[in-house]
Design a protein that fits this description.
The protein is an alpha+beta fold and 227 residues long. The strands form three sheets. Strands 2, 3, 4, 6, 7, 11 and 12 form a seven-stranded antiparallel β-sheet that branches. Strands 5-1-13-10 form a four-stranded antiparallel β-sheet, with no helix packed on it. A two-stranded antiparallel ribbon has the order 8-9. It is 23% helix and 33% strand.
Length: 227
Amino acid sequence: MGSDLTASSIIKRAAVVCGIAVLLALQAAAAGAAERYRLELFITWSRDTHPYDWPGAKAHLSGLIGAAHNTGYRMFADGAPATPGLKQLAETGKTPLIERELETASLIGRVGKTFQVPGIDTAPGYLEVEFDATLNHSMVSFATMIAPSPDWFTGAASVPLRARGEWRDSIDFIIFAWDAGTDNGPTYDWPNLVSDPPQSVRLLATPHVRQRRGLRPIGRAVLTRVF
């Protein structure tokens, strides 16, 4: 009888272990399952909306770069110093350094899928790109240079794609101009004037974007879940 109880205990324990293994596998699969999102940028920045010192036909946006990520990664933040990658993007529109930063963050699990799309040759304009997010990387950040400019850019950082335990179907928000704090140039088309010491990233508040009440936005971003 003792041997029967032992066999029964072993079977029960094996069943529990198998159940836990299945549950863990299902959780891992769910964490890695991709949710597709479409990012659209409606850029309204133009002579009509931002007439102060308008740069004319030179006005454009550089290629956009972004990534799905978790709370361990930060592309930029108000009051924080710009990373070398953001500095390069905001000053030149180039992305090699920020690509390298994203690759490094990906190796330690902080960043998931990254994405890029060509910019807008003549502002105003429209950008669209699709990307994948997962439970492990359920936030999104993106940035593009406002050009020409000393170190100004637009974008968004750490936008949550989930709320109350569910994927959000649609997210619509205004985007503003940011100053990377790495160049002291006072207007759009100005020779390089390095900030020494560098300043923190902050919302641009020069006459180029000021209005009677607050700051004039650069455009609007829409994130839509693709079913």
